[in-house]
Amino acid sequence: MGLKEVVPAPYEGEIAKNNGKRLTKRQVSGFEVFNACVNDLTGKDKLAKTIQYGIRTIAAIHEVNGLGNPSVAKHLGMDINGNIVRPVLNGQKLIEVVESVDSNDNNETKFSSISTIITLFSKILTKYAKIMSQKSIHRGFVIMVAYITNKLSSLLQGLNIYRHLLRAGTIPFRIWKFSNHIKWSLKILLDRTSIDGPAVKMETVIKYWTSKDLISQMINFWYAISDEILLLYRFKFLLNGNSNGKDSFSNSLFQFAEDHELYSWMGSILLGLNNDWNKWILLKDKESRIILNKKVKARTRRIVSDIKKNNSNEITTTTKRNESPDFDKYDNEDTEIAGEEEMYYDEMYYDELSEVKRDKTTVKINAIRLTCDMIFDAKYIFHWNMYKPLHVVLGLTSGSLGLYNVWRQKRYELENKQ
User: Which of 210, 323, 351, 355 counts the most CB atoms within 10 A of its CB?
Assistant: First the structure.
């Protein structure tokens, strides 16, 4: 959300004109906010990302801690399809259970009485049931995860394509923008009517191309090229050389696009974090100025009020009433106007402060989201060995926070819509 310039408080004469313009919030339902989110391009992307990485999280658990991991399947006596290939407790395992319970009892007295035999037998049954229960719950969990992963695999592929298509088609517009930038630069450099020398012209062009806005556009253009090359591979317009086991130009292009998509995404993330930091500093400064402005106005009103009281005390009440019979009425009206003015200033102060706090919350949420994206992307760039479900959860967290920010923004817009 963009930052707004601090508007100074109106003078006393303007209060009556502006007081009726204060916005009142209206009640909105969650369904209305959700409808606004899904009708927004960013909201669609964040919702799709949240669902996509939710499914990928389940798939990662299946791959690492479920039947997708052969060692886990073997431990549970199952194959990767969820079929039981051996019972939870076979005869050998049952003997181990009996021996483990038997070794904990006193060998001299373990069969000395019927009660001791019953106690030993109950311990064996308890431990047997505990192992059966744990294994059954574990088996049920991994079977459920495998079932969900299998059923949602097609949806996951569809969401991948859907999000890819939402980002597609921007290259022609970006080329048009850069052509305008190049035209402007050439116009500056080749302008013979200008009194500036070649060094000054070159410095102007360099400053223009190294501005934060141009750097952001270049990074986004870099990402768009890599992303749309990968989209061509996804739809089989280009074939990856790995598919036929041969090294080719197509394979090199695919690897180039994969790598540079990661690099450009990292550049975009770092630039976004820098922007959030700058916004945070501006918001802190704006908040301080609002609080200081409130204190100055309150102090000024107290001083003016004290001066008025001192002036009124110099004139006797009797004289004032003799000169003007309606003095009490005017005095009461002045008091009421002063009270309304103070109430208006307080309302305006709290409105401005609440807006700044809302913007600060938005910046914090976005910074956390970008940090999750940065760690997620860095895992691929630096080839970190990270626990796969944790790695995917970073993407899920990023998508959820992005969706939450869109939700907050849409709710705010609907609440203040007239």
Answer: 355
Nearest C-alpha neighbor of 8 from the set 341, 304, 294: 294
By the 10 Å C-beta count (0-12 exposed, 13-18 middle, 19+ buried), 336 is classed as exposed
Residue 385 has pLDDT above 70, yes or no: yes
Average pLDDT score, the chain: 79
Range of the domain at 157: 40-166
| 45 shares its domain with 22 | no
pLDDT at 376 exceeding the cut of 90: yes
pLDDT for position 100 = 53
What is the domain count for the chain? 2
Regarding whether 138 and 51 lie in a shared domain, the answer is: yes
Q: Which two tokens stand for residue 295?
A: 């204190």
pTM, 2 dp: 0.76
How far apart are the C-alpha atoms of 310 and 295, rounded to whole Å?
A: 23
**Alpha helices (H) in 90-211, listed in sequence order:** 91-103, 114-167, 171-190, 198-209
- The CA-based diameter of the chain, rounded to the nearest angstrom, is 118
Does the structure show a pLDDT above 60 at 102? Answer: no
Would you list the DSSP string of 62-81? HHHHSTTSHHHHHHTTB-TT
Q: Is 386 part of any domain?
A: yes
